[in-house]
Amino acid sequence: MSIDKDTAAKVAKLARIKVEEDQLEALAGEFNAVLGFIEQLNEVDVEGVEPMVSVTPMRLKRRQDVVTDGGMQDKILSNAPDAREGFFAVPKVVE
Predict the structure, then answer these.
(1) Could you list the residue range(s) of the whole structural domain that residue 32 is in?
(2) Which of 22, 30, 77, 88 has a Cα-to-Cα distance from 37 of 20 to 30 A?
């Protein structure tokens, strides 16, 4: 798969990143380099290889999985620039 300038512009728009017209060719090249690396990784045979979480064999500390309400809603919402009806209020971002 190859990314052209138009596709790079569309991806930048979807990511809400402003990219100047003269930079689109370089961005498309970077996207193509990433896709090339992914294709290279897909060629590796991993049949029978166990997935790993870490390179060191350590067990993570675990805590009891207990559901609580936290009891700090007012304290947390006091930091919010805009809170309504017990929730964070955020600007609409979907067009």
Answers:
(1) 5-42
(2) 22
